[in-house]
């Protein structure tokens, strides 16, 4: 049985999808782009600021699901320019503790709202005993 995760602390869906879907202890997070939840506008044209906003948005969805960003086991990072790889690592290091999740970083030609970064992933909630 699946349950839908939703929070107003992250941008609302801009299409036919949910912010996240939970099945047992696994949460599948939809891609987050650098929208400010209150305005639904892109935070900035600056890549570092966009990356920071995406991780804030992911954190909010993880918390709404009952976990934290450090419970993510897989992260997929989509960027329009892989030369921003080092910046992503710097920003990601502020949000994750070791051991880090598995990760892919992929260059794509375009993302929604012409942003420079989108991240999705999988969260494994801690078992409740």
TrEMBL record:
- What GO annotations for molecular function exist for this entry? deaminase activity
Out of the domains of life, which is the source?
Bacteria
Q: Which GO terms describe its cellular component?
A: cytosol
Q: Which Pfam families does this entry report, sorted A to Z?
A: Ribonuc_L-PSP (PF01042)
Its name, as the record gives it, is RidA family protein
**Which family does the record claim for this protein?**
Belongs to the RutC family.
* Organism name: Litorilituus lipolyticus
Known PROSITE patterns for this protein? UPF0076
InterPro entries assigned: RidA (IPR006056), RidA_CS (IPR019897), RutC-like_sf (IPR035959), YjgF/YER057c/UK114 (IPR006175)
Q: Record's Gene3D superfamilies?
A: RutC-like
């Amino acid at each position: 049985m699946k349950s839908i995760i939703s929070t107003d602390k992250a941008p609302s869906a801009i299409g036919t999808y949910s912010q996240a879907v939970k099945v047992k202890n696994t949460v599948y997070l939809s891609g987050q782009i650098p929208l400010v939840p209150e305005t639904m506008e892109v935070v900035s044209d600056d890549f570092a600021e966009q990356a920071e906003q995406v991780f804030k948005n992911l954190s909010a969805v993880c918390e709404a699901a009952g976990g934290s960003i450090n419970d993510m086991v897989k992260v997929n990072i989509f960027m329009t320019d892989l030369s921003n790889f080092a910046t992503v690592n710097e920003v990601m290091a502020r949000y994750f503790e070791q051991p880090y999740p598995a990760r892919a970083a992929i260059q794509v030609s375009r993302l929604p709202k012409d942003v420079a970064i989108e991240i999705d992933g999988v969260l494994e909630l801690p078992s409740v005993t």
